[in-house]
Design the sequence.
């Protein structure tokens, strides 16, 4: 037994991972250390998505990494989760790129597409040579995607789409958009090349996820052949299945941002001397550090349990909601607490905390707000739906 507990792994969760899982985690961690951390403050400050990273993420094997075949890495759900955690310890915007690419763009093609669509897109997307985005949310349809107004109507052997989508990560740098639209038969998903006439992406400027390409999409008379529809992507259920995949990655990823904030606060408070001793020696500071460490450990156990259930094929959507709700919420709390412990030093980009804190405001909101996930779990507990 070592003399002291590892402050970044109090419960020795590391020992619960297999050799493959640890190898994947270490590879992604090393990539983030070498390729992300030296430049991320600049990307964030300039509001710039480093598009050259797409191919590097492809080489690293993290794009669609838990999908089988078509050039995908075919790794486990736990390995995918660990990769999300390590990437988000770098930046939530970059983890968003990976999530949108793998869970929201490649997954629907893999799950709902034709053989031709899979062959056309998946190998290039796995290599990061083609980038995907996911167009579900609209200015007037956020938490309630069933109220979407984007439409798709048949015209001979074509579909014609009109509408307006918002909060599409990767949109302006995308090659293919997974667009959800209302047809006479209900909601349908399409895989549409981004350069198709009538598709127009515009950047969205925000004070969160600034290292990601946040976009909105205008569709004006977008004519696509019937083969652009993803045959299995019928009904809102198909879109929600994609969100499950992404929410799973968020439940892990948020812990990476939380770990970076906690670690920064721990280091700072051990070094900074006030009133004649290190801040970390004060009881109020220790109480905050312990709360952070405790929530990270609990979140890790939750994420790992979730991952093991996913790998056994028995994970339910409402269980994913429970983990997304908890881990995104606690990560944001940890970031805010860490920001406070850094005092005025915490409001500059010299330390990563305020960047993570701003990013986590999005993470707690997108892919289902805290309130929506509370109500999903509430419905699971009571059998009574509060949405209706
Ligand atoms: P509801 O009647 O509950 O469900 C319709 C059908 O879908 C099934 N279902 C699910 N299936 C798989 N996974 C899930 N998570 C599912 N949730 C529901 C359900 O069983 C039903 O199936 P069936 O066979 O009976 O037809 O649908 P509802 O309209 O009442 O909605 C319920 C609610 C509120 C939970 C759902 O709408 C919801 O999850 N809302 C939150 C939406 C959300 O997360 N939006 C954010 C999208 S992310 C984004 O656009 C920006 S981030 C991406 C980026 O960064 O680019």
Sequence:
């Amino acid at each position: 037994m070592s003399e002291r507990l590892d402050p970044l792994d109090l419960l020795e969760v590391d020992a619960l991972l297999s050799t493959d899982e640890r190898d994947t985690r270490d590879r992604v961690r090393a990539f983030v250390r070498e390729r992300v951390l030296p430049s991320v403050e600049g990307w964030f400050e300039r509001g710039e998505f480093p598009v050259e990273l797409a191919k590097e993420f492809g080489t690293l094997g993290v794009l669609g990494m838990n999908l089988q075949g078509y050039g995908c890495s075919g790794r486990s759900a736990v390995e995918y989760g660990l990769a999300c955690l390590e990437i988000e310890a770098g930046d939530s915007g970059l983890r968003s790129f990976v999530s949108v690419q793998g869970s929201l763009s490649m997954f629907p093609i893999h799950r709902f597409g034709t053989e031709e669509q899979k062959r056309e897109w998946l190998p290039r997307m796995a290599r990061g040579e083609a980038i995907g985005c996911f167009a579900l949310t609209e200015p007037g349809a956020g938490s309630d995607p069933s109220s979407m107004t984007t439409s798709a109507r048949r015209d001979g052997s074509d579909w014609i789409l009109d509408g307006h989508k918002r909060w599409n990560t990767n949109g302006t740098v995308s090659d293919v958009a997974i667009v959800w639209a209302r047809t006479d038969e209900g909601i349908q998903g399409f895989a549409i090349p981004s350069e198709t006439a009538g598709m127009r992406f515009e950047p969205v400027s925000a004070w969160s996820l600034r290292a990601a390409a946040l976009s909105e999409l205008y569709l004006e008379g977008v004519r696509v052949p019937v083969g652009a529809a993803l045959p299995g992507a019928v009904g809102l259920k198909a879109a929600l299945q994609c969100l499950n995949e992404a929410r799973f990655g968020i439940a892990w990823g948020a812990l990476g941002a939380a770990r970076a904030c906690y670690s920064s606060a721990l280091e700072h408070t051990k070094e900074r001397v006030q009133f004649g001793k290190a801040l970390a020696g004060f009881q109020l500071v220790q109480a905050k550090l312990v709360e952070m460490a405790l929530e990270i450990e609990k979140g890790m156990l939750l994420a790992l349990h979730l991952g093991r259930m996913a790998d056994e094929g028995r994970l339910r959507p409402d269980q994913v909601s429970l983990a997304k709700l908890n881990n995104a919420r606690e990560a944001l709390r940890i970031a805010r607490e860490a920001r406070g412990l850094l005092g005025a030093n915490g409001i500059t980009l010299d330390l990563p905390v305020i960047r993570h804190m701003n990013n986590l405001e999005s993470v707690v909101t997108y892919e289902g707000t805290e309130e929506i996930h509370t109500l999903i779990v509430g419905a699971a507990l009571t059998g009574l739906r509060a949405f209706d």
The beta strands are 132-135, 151-155, 158-166, 176-183, 186-193, 199-203, 215-225, 229-234, 273-274, 277-278. Residues 236-271 form the longest helix (36 residues).
